[in-house]
Specification:
This protein is an alpha+beta fold. The chain folds into 2 domains: 154 residues, OB fold (Dihydrolipoamide Acetyltransferase, E2P) (Beta Barrel); 65 residues, no CATH class. Helix content is 30%, strand content 24%. It contains 7 helices and 9 strands. The strands form 2 sheets. Strands 1-2-3-5-4 form a 5-stranded mixed beta barrel. The protein has a 3-stranded antiparallel β-sheet with strand order 8-7-9. The chain is elongated and about 120 Å long. About 20% of the residues have low confidence.
Amino acid sequence: MIAVSTIFLLFVLSICNAGVIFHEPCPLDTIEFATKVENSSFVVLGKSLEKALDQRSDTMFYVIFEVNCIFKGLAIPRHINITHAGKIEFCDELFQRENSFFLGQVEGKTYCQDFPLGRGHTIAFLERNPFELNNTEAFIPADFVEIPYVSNVTDELLLNTCGLHQLLPLESSASLSDVCPIVSTAPQCIPILELTSLGSGLYAHVIPGGSEHSIDNIRSKSGAISVDVDTKNAADSINLSILLILMAMIYVRLN
């Protein structure tokens, strides 16, 4: 009986080893953070609370995820369910240990996900679950690899990525400054004011990322004149000084 069990175990191990040899590995994550943000409906910071095999498929897992801060998208519940993530092979289900998963592509997608337990916070790129649109807690990963939150490195990444915001999840009582890193404050993310002359009036509008453009470059576009706030304040001060001088000259002549 022991011999039969040993032979069966060796047989299963040989199949697993063969699967690892011939299985196509997860592709290297070479997608830039800004690209992931642009092509995801939700970008959130949080951590995995629970991770388990999806009962409907032995190639996927689901995650119960705690959202701490939302960088893109509307407010969502603090606790959400992420399904259709990663891929788990038969051998890993058979010899599964806590937090041990063999990752690969979900059908129809290119990249893998991990959502590790007990390894700190993660920035996740998500979409609404198309099969549960009425369920506000149901999400699936966008076709990108999530990234671990490493304070100094990730903070700089968030600062230099334009178009992000800080938003608390629903039912959160946390302070925004305590759970949300500062985002989108780099010079290229700060807009400038453009004044455009149309007929007899001046019309103002904001140019996102305006600090990337010099005033001279903007003036060359269709006769539009662009100024920042400090320049406009200086011009107002000069105009006031000229007006006061003219009033003084008129007063002297009249007297």
